[in-house]
Design brief:
The protein is of the alpha/beta class. The protein is built from 10 helices and 8 strands. Helices cover 45% and strands 16% of the residues. Helix 2 links the parallel strand 1 (13-17) and strand 2.
Length: 229
């Protein structure tokens, strides 16, 4: 028997639709599902934050925006402006791509400053840094996690779920959990499609689960037309 109740698993899910073809109707459905199943948050692209915030106001479900997603190569200024715009629209937190190019170039001061500016712009809201572990070496991952923690990031996350971003595995989540202190959470994302996987990742140390399959996970019923994010 699982040590986790369905209600608890649902409370760890950040229900996601960040596909480019997402429509207003799709976002409304996402929000209704968050309310119905008790998910932690709805994660949407920036253009939908205001609409999602209006729907979810007073429900206890948070609204998160995917910033600088999924490439991670926007300028400092563009990220700061976008985040402040999202806060004005009612955003409770951001998931942002780290600048992998800076990291791999050894430009660690630029890499650090980029993250610090994101945290500062978020003004106390939750910041989750997407490390895209599938394209980082172990040393790069250690460095990125350390700098994220020092810069004040609240969560580190393994994958965007797009491009070269790999799925969440028990091994990578355990490793990420070992890289940061207890005040920093770990968000697992990519390939989380069923309850058994969700439970295994929580057991491995994930604090949150990012997935478009939230309904499928908690009900066991397949949902068509969704990504694996």
């Amino acid at each position: 028997m699982s040590k986790y109740s369905i209600k608890y698993v649902a409370s760890r899910i950040q229900h996601t639709n960040v596909t480019p073809e997402a429509t207003k109707h799709d976002i409304e459905r996402l929000c209704r599902e968050c309310i119905q199943y008790g998910f932690d948050a709805a994660v949407v692209n920036p253009i939908w934050v205001k609409h999602a915030s209006a729907i979810l106001k007073g429900t206890g479900v948070k609204v998160c925006a995917a910033i600088n997603f999924p490439i991670g190569a926007s300028t400092h200024l563009s990220k700061v402006v976008e985040i402040r715009s999202m806060l004005a629209d009612g955003c409770d937190g951001v998931d942002f791509m780290i600048n992998v190019g800076y990291l791999k170039s050894g430009m660690l001061e630029e890499f650090r400053r980029d993250i610090e500016l994101v945290v500062e712009a978020a003004d106390g809201r939750t910041v989750k840094a997407i490390l895209e572990t599938a394209i980082l070496t172990e040393d790069e991952l250690r460095t990125a996690a350390r700098i994220c923690e020092e810069a004040g990031v609240h969560y580190i996350k393994n994958s965007s779920g797009w491009g070269k971003g790999g799925p969440a595995t028990v091994e990578i989540i355990k490793f990420m959990r070992s890289l940061v202190g207890p005040k920093v959470g770990v968000k697992a994302s990519g390939g989380i499609r069923d309850l058994a996987t969700a439970e295994a990742l929580l057991e491995a140390g994930a604090s949150l689960l990012g997935t478009s399959r939230g309904v499928q996970i908690v009900t066991g019923v397949g949902v068509s037309g969704e990504t694996g994010y």
